From TrEMBL:
Membrane disposition: Multi-pass membrane protein
Organism per entry: Halalkalibaculum roseum
Localisation per UniProt entry: Membrane
Protein name, entry field: Amino acid permease
GO cellular component: membrane
Protein keywords: Membrane, Transmembrane, Transmembrane helix, Transport
């Protein structure tokens, strides 16, 4: 389906002109980022972290967390300096590189993470307020606070940003008050964790702490409001990470020397007691939690707005893409975000919400790193960032994210990945059409090139499978050929559907349109195939030229599938074409369709066998592949052989059973005694109830036309029959007997 929300033209999509009057680096990126970093976790859970894992454990958690954030920031800087980052922040970056499905699969969890962040910060605010005024109800305070920050965001994003400058002053005041404070008790804190047996494990504590360093998203999500995102995002993000890391490495040292582990664990507002002016901590924690909540409620609706405008969300949610006022504020999305946050405030608490956020943020960080790594690794001409990052650093960041997720909680990680995969599949099935290109074609090109360059020209029996080229003409008229070929490949071999047009005046544009129509026709029938339309003055000459030239390096079609022809006027040309295919070492499968029966019930395949080598081996492989396909699943395969007398029948049956046991295809054997009857009589009598018959065909020689005329007489009245002519320089017997081919040198 067409994407009804596609608004960006290629010209608009890649214009990199600054947005006049937008926010700058300090106000638009550094301020919201540092205020989110120095937030609720720092004030209300840092003492808990130190008390549980000790001083060294805390410094290690801070360093690991900041390292992951720093590597992600490098990737963000690379992407941000390559493209104009518009509304949607991380979602916009991923969708424009990895495609709309990948962007949506990450964008929806990212939105939920941002919406839950609002709850995280307002619950933290409520917890600190109730700590000072115990008579208040934490849920009521949380709900009122959440509604308040939503109203502020609805009134004006710029007003909310300006309010954050005053909050930053309050946080600075609180940190100075803590620095000049004094110990509240003798401290003998464990360096590697609390002595108390009730302390939490390292990775549990890590999961609670990690949202403290996810503040970089607060700046990235404001990308659409920045005057120059390519300049502001890298500078503001790195500055916030650096300042946050210095503060986070200093605070544990102060806390560890001023209180014991148990005190740090049990008192969320322990900083207030050890500060020079205790109420300054309240100013800091209240300011930090409120500013972080404002930052999240500004960012989350903008991600939602971008998702709606790109058509990622269902049609009935497209109203979420609407913007109001001169600054295109997403007020509808803010109201919805308020509802999500209120639900989380009512039913959640800090230690439950934080780990959920950690999983969502780590998933987003991981994909951002993968995006930048792939772009850099492919070295596409279109990817020219001013801030260059080696692909190994981005991939290291992605590996760090995934590793930490599994260390925190393997089950939760699996659920998070499953959630992303489900969204991806859902979006892929909707067949969204984006107005921008993405990196996926480049990925497949790189993989294809690497594979082609490593493929030798020598054929190997162990890895052989058919790569058919079907001379179908109009696919709708000869669908049975494509159906048969698709059953052989199982969507693993490379199937090509080819058509030769005899009008050489057809334009290249019309040929491309025809190929596109055929691809759509095949896709609707779940057939994965390459399509080739070519022109020639004569269809037979065109087919011969196509088979001779079609392919890439060592990867060429090894099997030609074509329909039978009973037209005597073209028999000579037809037989010459088969002989040409054979000389070019292409196996030939001629499908003689019984138009009344088709493939009937697909319950039985008869192979008329003359030995394992040549045609016999290829026929057994073809039958096995059909038998294991979805459309011919569990059909019965009968291998039939005709002998002169009973004595020969015993020997032939014993030999045939031994071969079938060795190749393990599950086929049944049937040795028939001629008793004076002709092969034609036996063939028609024995295979009249089959759904498909496989017959070997002699190698073309000077009498091949006469031989083919006799075959035409033989096929009359038979079910649908495939004439098999093996031509490749490979032993199909070895393909079947691979498990017995090992030997010692």
């Amino acid at each position: 389906m067409k994407n009804p929300f596609r608004r960006s033209s290629p010209d608009k999509e890649y214009v990199i002109s600054p947005q006049k009057g937008g926010l700058g680096t300090f106000g638009g990126v550094f301020t919201p980022s540092i205020l989110t970093i120095l937030g609720v976790i720092m004030y209300l859970r840092f003492g808990w972290v130190v008390g549980n894992v000790g001083l060294i454990g805390t410094l290690l958690i801070v360093t690991i967390s900041t390292s992951i954030t720093f590597l992600t920031a490098l990737s963000i800087a690379a992407i941000a300096t390559d493209q104009r980052v518009r509304i949607g922040g991380a979602y916009y970056m991923i969708s424009r590189s990895l495609g709309i499905e990948s962007g949506g699969a990450i964008g929806i969890p990212l939105y939920l993470a941002q919406a839950l962040s609002v709850a995280l910060y307002t619950v933290g605010f409520a917890e600190s307020v109730v700590g000072v005024f115990p008579t208040l109800d934490i849920k009521i305070v949380g709900v009122i606070t959440t509604i308040g920050v939503a109203i502020l965001a609805l009134v004006s994003a710029k007003a909310a940003i300006r309010a954050q400058y005053f909050i930053m002053f309050g946080i600075l005041l609180s940190l100075l008050s803590l620095l000049f404070g004094s110990p509240i008790e003798q401290s003998n804190i464990e360096m590697w964790g609390a002595a108390d047996r009730h302390s939490e494990g390292f990775w549990v504590v890590f999961a609670v702490f990690f949202p403290a360093v996810t503040g970089i998203m607060a700046g990235v999500n404001m990308s659409g409001d920045l005057e120059n995102p390519a300049k502001s995002i890298p500078r503001g993000t790195f500055a916030a990470i650096g300042v946050g890391y210095v503060i986070y490495m200093a605070l544990p040292i102060i806390l560890a020397h001023r209180a014991d582990a148990l005190t740090l664990i049990e008192d969320p507002l322990i900083m207030r007691k050890m500060s020079y002016w205790g109420d300054a901590i309240l100013i800091g924690v209240w300011g930090a939690t409120l500013s972080s909540a404002v930052g999240s409620i500004l960012g989350a609706p903008r991600v939602l707005q971008a998702l709606a405008r790109d058509g990622v969300l269902p049609r009935w949610l497209r109203w979420l893409g609407r913007g109001d006022g001169e600054d295109d504020s997403p007020r509808a999305g803010t109201v919805l975000t308020l509802g999500v946050a209120l639900a989380a405030v009512w039913f959640g608490n800090l230690n439950i919400i934080a780990p959920i956020l950690t999983m969502f943020f780590l998933t987003t960080y991981g994909v951002l790193n993968i995006t930048a790594g792939i772009e850099r690794l492919l070295n596409s001409p279109s990817f020219r960032p001013k801030f260059k990052v080696h692909w190994a650093l981005s991939m290291l960041g992605a590996l760090g994210c995934i590793s930490v997720m599994f260390l925190i909680n393997a089950v939760a990680t699996g659920i998070a990945f499953l959630f992303v995969i489900i969204i991806y599949i859902w979006l892929q099935r909707r067949e969204l059409e984006a107005a921008w290109g993405d990196v996926r074609r480049g990925i497949w090109m790189a993989i294809t090139r690497a594979g082609l360059m490593r493929m030798g020209t020598e054929q190997e029996s162990k890895t052989w499978r058919p790569h058919p080229l079907v001379l179908s003409g109009a696919p709708t008229n000869r669908w049975h050929l494509i159906d048969f070929a698709s059953a052989l490949t199982h969507n693993r071999g490379i199937l090509t559907v080819a058509t030769v047009l005899t009008d050489e005046n057809i334009s290249a544009e019309r040929k491309n349109n025809m190929e596109s129509n055929i691809r759509d026709f095949l896709a609707k029938r779940s057939v994965q195939a390459l399509v080739r339309v070519t022109t020639a003055p004569d269809p037979f000459e065109g087919a011969e030229r196509l088979i001779e030239s079609y392919g890439l390096g060592a990867l060429v079609p090894n099997t030609v599938i074509l329909g039978d022809s009973e037209n005597k006027n073209i028999r000579e040309q037809y037989c010459k074409m088969i002989a040409t295919f054979h000389r070019q070492k292409r196996n030939v499968l001629v499908v003689h369709e019984n138009k009344e029966m088709g493939f009937s019930e697909r319950k039985r395949i008869d192979i008329w066998w003359g030995g394992l080598q040549g045609n016999g081996g290829l026929m057994m492989i073809l039958a096995y592949l059909l038998q294991s396909s979805r459309t011919w699943w569990d059909t019965e395969v009968r291998i039939k052989m005709v002998v002169q007398d009973e004595k020969a029948a015993e020997d032939a049956n014993r030999n045939l059973v031994r071969i079938v046991d060795q190749i393990r295809t599950g086929a049944k054997t049937e040795v028939l005694v001629s008793e004076g009857r002709s092969f034609n009589e036996i063939l028609h009598e024995s295979s009249k109830d089959a759904d498909l018959v496989l017959l070997g065909m002699a190698e073309p020689d000077k009498d091949f036309i006469s031989y083919y005329e006799n075959i035409q007489q033989r096929l009359k009245g038979l079910p649908t029959t495939v004439l098999v002519l093996a031509a490749e320089g490979i032993s199909f017997g070895e393909v079947l007997m691979q498990q017995d081919s090992y030997h010692e040198d």
